[in-house]
Amino acid sequence: MPFCPKCGTEYQEGTKFCGKCGENVDGSSATAIPGATTDANATSIPAGTPAVAPAPVKQGPGFFEKLTATKDYTDEIGLDDIKQNKVMAILAFCAVFAYIVFSWTTVGILGIIAFAGLMVAPILKYKESAYIRFVMSQLYVAFFGVLLFSLLDGAISGFFYNLIAPSAMDIIDAELAGLFDKAAAAGVVLRQVFANLVAWIIHLVFMAIPIFTLVVGFINVIKEKAKGMPFIEKIKVTFEK
Q1: Are 155 and 203 in contact (CB under 8 A)?
Q2: Is the pTM of this model over 0.70?
Q3: Which of 25, 131, 167, 172 is the most buried (most CB within 10 A)?
Q4: DSSP collapsed to 3 states, 25-44
């Protein structure tokens, strides 16, 4: 029986590595793993073999992907109709966006004028295009949602604004006090600023859902897709051919 030249441990013939110290005992160029017993029947991997990367773990759709994964009617309506009337669909969405933007200002009447003016061309195309009927049927519901959320927002934000903001008498007193007590006047100004900030935060929270719905629908129009809009897909008016 041969012995390991390094540690003197006896080993069987045909063994490549010493079972005690891991020394290479057969003269080959393979590198032993110290402290590990080598199996003579084990299959070695040739040097330079590229490592195989593990298969990526498939993840489910995210929150926003689920919201935007609505039914696609593009094939049913026809891509030609969509391409020909894409501009009209954009105008219809712009009409609703214009109403929202102007409703946030003190000249809300301009929002109604802009909405009516931009809607003229899409309405004229309503009977001729299945795509315009599809878009308008969703915008009817989306616009109603904007009105509903605006009413709720106005009531709640107005309540908190009046609760926090200084009254007219407080403002008058602050102006008079400003001549003698700048700290008291500054406190009234801070209350006014804070009241406006709270009202705007409430406003943005309430309008987030309808604006998100409209933005997704607008992106679908830009991409020339006839897809349902989030939240209102199941309650939209079904278009007719």
Answers
A1: no
A2: no
A3: 131
A4: CCCCCCCCCCCCCCCCCCCC
Q: Is the pLDDT of residue 182 over 80?
A: no
Domain ranges for the chain, please list them. Answer: 1-33, 72-235
Burial group, residue 233, by CB count within 10 angstroms (0-12, 13-18, 19+):
middle
- The answer to whether the CB of 132 falls within 8 A of the CB of 125 is yes
> Is the per-residue pLDDT at 19 higher than 90?
no
Give the rounded percent of residues in the chain with a pLDDT score beyond 70: 77
- In contact, 94 and 118? CB cutoff 8 Å: yes
| Residue 213 contacts residue 179 (beta carbons within 8 Å) | no
pLDDT in tens, 192-221: 899 999 988 998 888 899 999 999 999 999
H/E segment holding residue 192: helix 182-222
CB 165 within 8 A of CB 192: yes
In whole angstroms, what is the distance from residue 215 CA to residue 116 CA?
20
Q: Two tokens at 135?
A: 């878009």
CA angle 132, 136, 142 (to 5 degrees): 150
CA distance 92 to 126: 11
pLDDT digits (tens, 9 = 90+) for 26-58: 766 544 444 444 444 545 555 555 555 566 665
What gap in Å lies between CA 151 and CA 73, rounded to an integer? Answer: 32
Contact by Cβ (8 Å): 226, 220: yes
